[in-house]
């Protein structure tokens, strides 16, 4: 197989926005992780300046099974997009673990958003399958990807409640069955829906204990949107995985852990328990889910797309 470079458009043609395939990737990668056929090394973090949100991340992983791939995702995160650039840039390098040969290089900024939204979709479908009212905080690429995912995976969705600090629109238009409601504050937006996706780069919490009302699911995708007091009020605190990153991650839950206010033993369930074992909260429980982002998903998604692209004749050859 010729080593390839896949652009954003190549990935879309290869099935990046096939949400059912994405959910299958999530499930299979977690299953492989459980039996030792997938593995993640600790991420390498490189500060890019005085703003703690400006960092470079190196994330290596391998995933066996049908993926049979190992690789490294290198990402730069900036609090604000530089002039003429983007706030997040990312590349993923993939090798075939069966042959030892390189599969190629993927422009993975979009793919990171896709795998993050796919996990959010999988968790929400498991915990709140009949979703009708959704809140999205933020209006950047991650927020818009979560909207695309929700429209594809939740046919009963009727209302999208939206807040963003910038005032930017989340979407130019929505399907006729869905009403978009805009809010002046994040709290009111969250209180209007059953499920909330927080997709911002907020360095300080936006949400307090009042959002942890009975039956609510708050799924944190972004930086530090949820206060310690709000997390304390959740009936069930869940996350994709608890790992060494709890010592360095700026996510609200892990900051709370390092502050001595949240012991690991209080985690009610991780993504594997929810998606593989069928864990469910008590009726009317409020649930907080912290989405850190597992690099096994990056490698799994990239491997599927790389092989699809090769079969379809997509991508730019990098070697003869």
Describe the structure in your own words:
Pfam families: OCD_Mu_crystall (PF02423). It comes from Allosediminivita pacifica. The mean pLDDT is 94. This protein folds into 2 domains: 4-111 and 296-317, ornithine cyclodeaminase, domain 1 (2-Layer Sandwich), CATH 3.30.1780.10; 113-294, NAD(P)-binding Rossmann-like Domain (Rossmann fold, 3-Layer(aba) Sandwich). The protein is of the alpha/beta class and 320 residues long. The strands form 2 sheets. Strands 1, 2, 3, 4, 5, 6, 7 and 16 form an 8-stranded mixed beta sheet that branches. It has an 8-stranded parallel beta sheet with strand order 10-9-8-11-12-15-13-14. The chain has helices at 8-13, 19-34, 109-127, 141-153, 186-191, 228-233, 252-258, 271-275, 295-312, and strands spanning 4-6, 38-40, 44-47, 55-63, 69-77, 88-96, 102-107, 133-137, 159-163, 179-182, 195-198, 217-220, 236-239, 267-270, 287-290, 316-317. It is built from 9 helices and 16 strands.
